[in-house]
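Hey forum,

I'm writing up a methods section and want to include a predicted complex as supplementary material. The small molecule is zinc ion. I've pasted the protein sequence and the SMILES. Can someone with a working setup run it? I'll credit the forum in the acknowledgements.
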Amino acid sequence: MEGEQDGGHRFRDPGVRLWHFAKEILVRCPRCDGRALVAVRPDHRDGHRYAVGWLTAPHRLTCPACGHVAEWTPQPWRTGEGDAYFSSRGVFAVPALGGPDDPYFGLPLWLRRPCRGQVLWAYNVAHLEFMEAYVAATLRERPRPAGSQSLLERLPAWMKSAGNRDEVLAAIRALRDAA
Ligand SMILES: [Zn+2]
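Reply by user p_vandermeer:
Happy to help. Structure tokens for the complex are below, copy them as they are.
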């Protein structure tokens, strides 16, 4: 393949969406500042046909370090407040994914770090490693047509810039080491 000869490696965008990595979100525990987990409550984990089903399911924060537990329940949707999910249980607001805070409790993500005057963040280690593979690649496929919203297409320009590659990779790896 062209490009392989100059030492580059190719990265094909698999079309993964951010919600793929939102099933387990590492956050900073509001009680002890340790690493806590936000995830769908165990008794609501199954039976979701669509991603929006578990995105709006009850979530629980658990902190292995101090034992802190907090519950999040689905919020009724109101006009003008983001996306709505019409379910048999009612109309719920879909938590807005993105940014360095978790979309349920609004707590700082565990995996966040300043980089290039911005904040690099990830929900979990798999999310970090996915971005690492993309940023490390020297050959990236052209984005697909507009309208598609894969995780990679939504990454900010400063993370995609070849000139920032080394710094972004160093930040990702530092986060992974601290995970
Ligand atoms: Zn804690």
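Some notes you might quote in the supplement: The pocket of zinc ion is lined by residues 29, 31-32, 34, 36, 63, 65-66, 68 (CB under 6 Å). Residues 1-7 have pLDDT under 50 and may be disordered.
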